[in-house]
Amino acid sequence: MVPGASTPIRVAALVIDEDTVEAVIRSGETGFQADHFRATLRYPTAAAFRAARTEGGLPPVPIDPSRDLYGGILFQGKRFQRLLCYDRLAAKYCEARISLTQVAPWFGTFLPQDTLLGDLGARDAFMHSIQCCVPNATLLPVGVRRLTPSVRTEGQVTMYATELSRTGDTFLYDVDVRDGAGEVVERWEGLKLQAVRKQDGRGPWVPVLLGPYLERRLEEVLDQAPPGRARRGAGRRRLPSANAASRPRSRSAGRLGRREVVR
To answer: 39 and 153 in one domain?
Structure first.
């Protein structure tokens, strides 16, 4: 489409049964004959969302999203800045608390602000919170195999994201969203994210993001990625001399992009 031009679209929806709807988006550019986007919406009963509560009591990861992430590693505007904190953060897993509170109107002053499929800003935060698992690149959503949505619009929830696989620069995640009682209220299955604008790892780094980065880089050197977390002041203590068994691994650490002392 020519920049500045416009084209009409049509949204068509068909009720398949009592809890399933098929929807498509068509464009005037193709005479409304082609489905440019297709989705199957399912609305299961509350029992389908039930899941066991997870363990709590862990201190939040020492990072302030509003100060350390938004405007830098996270490019989202004010309406989408719903990430409150991380409870856990690693290369292939994260737990993040997300606000459902709307901070600005979505539509014009004289239009209703209600949305039928839940909060747009929070749902974007479910995706962009995974960004810190791959802190040396920008993750863009490509698609999702199945989304079971929630229509909640108040309070806060906890997002649990687990990496299923990685193929080159494409990452596949499953995401569970739970309320304060530990009940799953929304589920994303097969969320596909594409890494673009990759960096060379030179930083500067927010300290806690160095941990996920090193996990991924070490996985390219070692047989598996050891879990870890970078913390301030770790380099102030004197470490014992490396023995013969540790020297090959120390030399491999030099392949992270430039030679550094890694503790």
So the answer is: no
